[in-house]
Amino acid sequence: MNPALIVSLREGTLDSLLTGTPGFELGSDRRRAFLERLADLPVPERTLLDSFRVERGPRDVGPFSWSAEKAARRLSTDVLRRETRVRHLGAAFDEVVHSLTRLAGDPRTTRDLGSWLASLTPGALAMVRSRALHRAQLTLGVVARFSHPVTMTPADSYLSVTRSRWLLRGQRDAVIGDTDHRILLRVRPGSPSRSAVRGLRVDALIDTLVNPSGQAPARMVGVWPESGLVIGVEPALDDLRVAARDLLRAARLVSDSAHQNAA
Amino acid sequence: MTIIEQLLQPSPGLTHDIDADLRDVLSLGPATNPLVITPRLSPPRGVIELADSRRARLRGRLVEVWLSLWAARSGVRPTVKDLLDAAGVSDQYRDVVESFSSLDPDSRARLVADLRSHLSVLDGLLGAPSPSVAIDLDVRRRVVLAHGGGELRVRVDVVVSRQGQRGLLDVTTSPLDHQIEPLALTALADVAVGRRPTRVAQLSTATGDVHWIDVDDALLDLALATLRQRSEVA
Fold it and tell me: How far apart are CA A100 and CA A112, in angstroms?
């Protein structure tokens, strides 16, 4: 297993992480074996499985509900697709919220972001704005530190697991390089948790499973600009194996908990 | 001139080779027996009772919410109701709404009156943020120290930057104690992650006092000496 690289965020740190070899290729038999084991774990409804579940461990995640922090990641991505000049981010946020709330449904019957935003008071919306713009600025600050072109990803990578109700989500905020030699970037607020490395490996695994030829990213880089820390993971076969074990463990917890609730 | 503009005024800054200065004291790596060093040893004398009270803690948290809305330039001049609405949708501040609701009506009324006074001071000192100023809130630094296996942990309430100038601001709802060492350690933690702060300040929303200082070589020397001293004492 490749040791995770944990370094402080200094001048040139991020560029120095762009020297990885092309990503490891995970054979189709291994991919199939993992997905079949996952599909064998029953869940009663469509369930999202991602690095958040793994990092959170056995603590109950609970049913999904929107919050300023949860909305911030999606909104900041949308804002940055429209605008990358810091002083105009606020106007871009207003446009994004306007377009999302225009066709909003009733928040009591739908869980979509636009309906939730439309239901907020001015004070609550101001908090969402604060969180989204803060996140957008953090991301811009990180992207500006690379001397290579960085592409903001419009969405995470998703994989619906056949014969099951699991939906895998690999989180990523930006990508550097071409498909064979891609380096995925996650920008995160706060400080890394003790399981941050495991989370990054899980993101790398899901991105590998989504890739048609099973090619892993050359590197998965997590940046915590507020703490000045960078963690780089170069996923080899053993890293992906550990990530698969972590994902299956998290899935088993969710499955067991759903089973107990039903009983 | 607002405190934000004061923080962003040109200053002599640092001339030392910072990396060389810090190399023997700071390095990133696993701490075996972490001694946690924070800028303040203990709350300043006379404010312990205030800091301990539940109402004061709640007031401090609502001031943080106010800062979030201020930094987002949302155009809302927040009332206490706006602050509670804002706290209610944030994972970080949801407990504030529960704590506020659990206060008896008398305590709640006192908190609201007290909070209005603190917010009025903040509003006056910070002013509306200029679009050209980048603002970061609640910036936390954890710097692992090479000798002693310790860790310097710093939390900065407001970081403002504009064209190479960078100011760090600690906002407290208690009176100021005018010690320089906490400001020096705050600046050092920022320098240790590759930033170049130019000024560091502390602001009291209780009294309206502001204590600020240029980040220069002398301030960093003081911070390094304080770190060595605290490591040795421990």
Answer: 9
C-alpha distance from B45 to closest chain A C-alpha (Å) = 30
Q: Please tell me the distance in Å from B223's CA to the nearest CA on chain A.
A: 19
The CATH number of domain A5-59+147-262, selected from 3.90.320, 3.40.50, 2.30.30, 3.30.43: 3.90.320
Q: Can you state the angle between helices B94-102 and B54-71, rounded to 10 degrees?
A: 140
Q: Which chain A residues are Cβ-neighbours of B20 within 8 angstroms?
A: none
The torsion region of residue B165 among left (phi > 0), alpha (psi -120 to 50) and beta comes to beta
| Domain, as residue range, for B8 | 3-43+133-233
| Helix or strand run (H / E) with residue B56 | helix B54-71
d(CA A177, CA A153): 12
CA distance A166 to A175: 25
User: What is the separation of C-alpha A49 from the centre of its chain, rounded to a whole number of angstroms?
Assistant: 11
How far is it between the farthest Cα atoms of chain B?
Answer: 57
The string of DSSP codes covering A45-104 is S-EEEEHHHHHHTTS---S----HHHHHHHHHHHHHHH---GGGHHHHHHHHHHHHHHT-
Same domain, B113 and B192: no
Instruction: Please give chain A's pLDDT, 263 residues, in tens.
Output: 778 888 888 888 899 888 668 889 999 999 999 999 999 999 988 999 999 989 887 666 677 889 999 999 999 999 999 998 888 899 999 999 999 998 777 766 667 899 999 999 999 999 999 999 999 988 998 999 999 899 988 889 999 999 999 999 999 999 999 888 899 999 998 888 889 999 999 999 999 999 999 999 999 999 998 777 899 999 999 999 999 999 999 999 999 888 887 77
Residue-wise pLDDT tens digits, B166-214: 999 999 988 998 889 999 999 998 888 778 899 999 999 999 999 999 9
A10, A125, A130 member nearest B68 (Cβ)? A130
Q: Residue A191 is which amino acid? A: S
